[in-house]
Amino acid sequence: MIAISLTVHEMPHVVMELMSNIRYTYNGNAFLVVHVSRDNKEKFLKHAAATGVDMHDPDVHWNDVEMPTKWGNTLPMQVSNFLYLTMTLRRPFTHFQILSPANLVVGTDMDRYVASHDILLNNTIPTAKGWRWHEQVQQDTGFTAFREAHGLGDPVAVRVDGMAVRADIFGGFVRRLLDIYSLDAMRNLPAFYPQEETIIPTYLSRFRQFAYKFAPSRSRTFEPHHPPLTIERVEKIMEEGKIAYLKRIPPHRASPLRRFILERRSLGVGGLPRPYPQPAEAPAMVAPADENDSLAIGGPAEPAAPVEQLPPVA
Predict the structure, then answer these.
(1) Could you tell me the residue range of the domain that residue 81 belongs to?
(2) Is 137 left (phi over 0), alpha (psi -120 to 50) or beta?
(3) Does 263 map to a domain?
(4) What is the pLDDT of residues 37-79, one digit of tens each?
(5) CATH code for the domain of 172
(6) Looking at the domain assignment, is residue 245 inside a domain?
(7) Structural domain contains residue 226
(8) In total, how many domains does the chain have?
(9) What is the pLDDT of residues 130-188, one digit of tens each?
């Protein structure tokens, strides 16, 4: 079972439509944990009521720890969602995955793709001079202390949409991060930069040199300056049997592209939508094999593979 983390502040129908999309593309083997910005919670609920959005779904869990959010930096909320899963909800999961409300998923058997790897992460880039957020990263003393404590080397960066990490590995990251860096400090940076696109990849990149199964997250972001994402392009991705996390899907219900993806969901024999399979029976929760590099922050979870120690510092 895969836990998919979202941080949102508007348009509740987007969350529920993404759950419908995921239910098909993940064969019923995924669920959402959602953080709603404290600043927008009242507006969010009013919008849901006014537009008739039913927010009750057994696979959508609303994090009851609400923090005010700002554009860009979602790391404190992703950590909060993980803590809510492991300390409060305690629903078993093998992998923790980050998506954006602007994502929709195309492809089939996404659950198998995620579960067959330890880490899904696109290729990272160095945060050297010339990178947009270089100076801001240098001013983040908490991140510097975290890197020095664990021998992480120079920072790297990558978009995290579609990133997935084995639950025990992400649990080790959260525990080590919170030993040095509080959620309040993450939310009150001396200079803004997207921490989740830098701190998480910098930590995970260290695992590449060891026997961990890495693969690309296969996220595809369509910014305004890119060639526009059209129904024809999405249909080609589907017909070729590719899997992808598509970002910048128009959020409005009337969008023809959104409606096309949600109605097709994923292709089966003859190009017809597959019937929704029943979710696999949830496995019993088991204690982590190694408390030194496991969730260990509030309880057991189901490891996807034997838990490994953090790679040694060179």
Answers:
(1) 2-217
(2) alpha
(3) no
(4) 887 888 888 888 888 888 889 999 999 888 877 666 789 999 9
(5) 3.90.550
(6) no
(7) no
(8) 1
(9) 778 888 888 898 999 999 999 998 899 888 888 999 999 999 999 999 999 888 888 88
CA distance 265 to 174: 33
CB environment 149-161: b (16+ within 10 A), e (fewer): ebebeebbbbbbb
Q: Burial level of 12, CB count in 10 A (0-12/13-18/19+)?
A: buried
Strand pairing class (119-120; 104-106): unpaired
The candidate with the shortest Cα–Cα distance to 33, out of 1, 68, 3, 58, is 3
- The tokens for 96 are 């923790």
Q: 180 in a domain, yes or no? A: yes
- Structure pTM? 0.82
Whose CA is closest to 194, among 127, 287, 252? 127
Confidence of residue 198 (pLDDT cuts 50, 70, 90): very high
